[in-house]
User: Fold these one by one.
Assistant:
Number 1:
Amino acid sequence: MFSAAVLVSSDRAFSGVYPDKSGAFLRDKLGEMGYDVVDLCILPDEFELLRDKLQSYVDSGVNLVLTTGGTGFAPRDVVPEATKAVVERDVPGISEAIRAGSLAITPKAMLSRAVAGIKDCTLIINLPGSRKAVEESLAIVAPVLEHGLGILLGEADN
C-alpha cells in the first residue's frame, strides 16, 4: 500500500469563505483506490508555506502528494513554483497528459501551469483547483500511478 497526502492551495478555503471540495474529493478517492491517505492540508496561496509543507511530506516518506489549486495565472498561484523548489526530477509527461486530456474538455486547460516531479521516494503532482477538473485529471493519471510509484520505490520494473 502506498501512502498519499493531499495539499489544497486556496486563500478562500483556508480562511473559511467556502468549504474545500477538491481536496476532500481527492482524499476520499485515493482511499477508495487503496492508498493510505495520511494527510489533507489546506493552506493559503503562500509560496513558503506550500514549499515547506511539500518538503515535510518528502521528509516523512509520503509516496504520492497531490496538490489542488494555485496552478493558474493569478499572481498568488504559486504551487508550480513551490513544487519546483522541492522536486529534483521533473516528470513532464504527467502534466502534459493532464493538459492534453483536459483540452478535449475545455480550451482553458492550456492556461494550466501545473507540474509534476520526484524527490526521494515522493511523487508530487499538481492538479487544478475545481472539483470537476480534479476528478477529470485524476482519471487521466490514475491508471499509471501504481506502476510509476512501484518503479520509484524499486518494487516494479520499467
Number 2:
Amino acid sequence: MIPLVKVAMPPRERLMPALEAVLYSGFVAEGEHVYQFEKKFAEQFHLPFALAMSSGTGALHTALLLAGVQPGDEVITTSMTAEPTNTTILQCGAVPVFADVDPLSGNLDPGAVEESISDKTKAILLVHYAGFPARLRELRAIADRHGIALIEDAAHSLGASYAGQGIGTMGDYGIFSLQAIKHMTTIDGGVLTMRNSSQVDEAKRLRWFGMSKGVPRTEVDITVAGYKYNMHNVAGVIGLAQLETIGGLIDRHIANGRYFDEEIARIPGLSVTQFDAEAAPSYWLYTVLSDESSVIEKRLADVGVSASKLHRLNHLHSVFAPMRRPLPGLETYYRRLTHIPCGWWVSEEDRSRIVDTLRKG
C-alpha cells in the first residue's frame, strides 16, 4: 500500500556518524546542537527566531501561556484537528470554543470566529489544516480588532507561506510539530516562534522548569512554574541533518499537491481544497471532497493506496461534550472529505494511478 503518511529520515551516511558523535560526547541534553538547529530552522523557514521544544504540544502550551490564557478564559478553536490542539487548552484550565469551518477548506471560517468572540475570549487558535493556510489576513484583522492573540498551529504546514511570509509569522505565536509523521521529524519535537521578541526569555524559562539556562542553580530564582519542554542534543542533531534535505522533500509534497489540484478538480463529482490566492500550501495531506467519500476510500484501497479521514472530530470526544455546538460547515466538510497521500514517497507513476482510479468513478 502507498501509505497516507510516512517517516522521512536523512541519508544514513550523514545521520549515523553525527548521532554516534553526540551520543558519546558526554553531553546529550540541551546544548549547542539545539541552538544550532534553532538558528538554521529559523533561517530556512523565514522565522524571526525559533525555540526548539520537546514537542509541538509543548510549544502550543507555552504559546497559550505567553498569550496570557488562564483558567476560565475562552480560546476560539477548531474541531477539525488532532486532539492535542484542544486538550492543551484544557490543560490551561481554559475553555475551547469550537467555531465552524469553511466547508471548502476545513479551516476556520473568519465569520464564525467573529461570532464566537465574547468578553472571555483570550485567543484565536487556528490550524492550517493538512498544510493549507487558513484565511490569515481576515483572522489577523479580527484578532487585532478585538485585542486578542492569534496563535497559528502550523503542525501540518511546514514550508507553507502566506502573502510571501513564512507560515507561523502572521500570528502572535506560531508552533510547528516535528513528530514522527510530519513533513520533518526529530523523532519527536516542536518549534515555537513569536512576534514579540521581548517574550523570548520568558518562553525559555517556561520550557525549563521556570529557570534560565546558563545561570548557576544556586543563583536561580523561579518566579513562575515552568515545564520540561526543552529539546535535547540528540534531537537537535537529527534536526540539523534533516534540514539539509527537507527542502527537497517538501518540494515533492508541493509538486504532487499541485498536480492533484490540476487533475482532480477536472473530474466530475469531485472538488479540492479552496485557499486564498495569497496562500502557498505545503500539502502535508491531500484532500478530495466528494459526496461518495466512502467509495473513494474503497476504490483506492483496491489499487493499493491508503485513504481515510484520519482524524476524529474533537468535539465528539466525551471530554469536550460541554463545548458541543452546531457546526454545519464542519459536518459538511467531514462528510465529504477523503485524505489521499501526496508526500515525497508518491512517485509520478503513483499519482497518475490515483488520478486514473478517481476518473473511473
Number 3:
Amino acid sequence: MALDPQSGVAQTLLASALLGRVVGGMSDSASSDLARAEGLVDQTLAASPRYSDAHVIKGHVLRAQNRWQEAMPEYEAALMLNRNLVEALSGLGFCKLYAGSIEEVIALEEQAIRLSPRDPNTGFWYFLIGIVHLLQSRTDEAILWFEKARSAIPAVAVFRNGLTSAYALRGETERAVAELAEARRLSSDDRFSSIARQKTFAGGWWGVPKIRALYEATYFAGLRKAGVPEE
C-alpha cells in the first residue's frame, strides 16, 4: 500500500486481514477495523467493479456487521463473475439463513462442498447444514452434519456447542454434557457459560424474527436440556 496506494489487490488483501483480525477476536477496535476494511474494498470496487474477490470480501465485512441483506448482493455479484467461488457460495448461505430464506441454504453449502471437498473451511459448511436441519427439527440429520464438522475441524468450539444442543434434544444427556465441557474448554472466552451470554454473542443478533423463533424452539431448548443456565 505504501508503494502503490491504488493497488486493488493490496487494498483487498488488507481489508481481508483487518476482517480476519476482527473475526478471530484479536481486534482492539472491531468497529474501526471493519469500517477501514469496508472503505478499502469500496475503493477497489469503485476502480474495478468486476474484481470478484473484492465483492467476496465486501460481503464478508457486511456479514461481520450483521448486514445480511446488504451482503447478499455482493456474494451474488461475485458468483456472476465466477460461479465457482466457494467462499461466495458459503457466505451467501449464511446470509440466506439469517435473512429468513432457510430453505435455500443447504443447496448452496452442498454446492460449495462439491466444488471444493478438501477445502479447509468445509467444517463450517457442514456445520451450517447441521444448523438448518436442527432448526427444522431434523435432529438426527443435524447430528450427522455436526459430527462431520467436528471431525473436519476438531478445535472449533461452536461445533461442539451445536452437538450439545442436538444430543440433548435426542435425550443423550451424557454426550451433550461432554460436548458442552469441550466447547467451554476450547473457547477463548465465556460465551458458552449461559444462555444469556450466548444470546449476546455477535451483537445479540440471531436473524429475522422467524429464524430467532426457530433457534429458541430448537437450539436454545437443547442447550437448556443439557443444563446450560439462563444467566
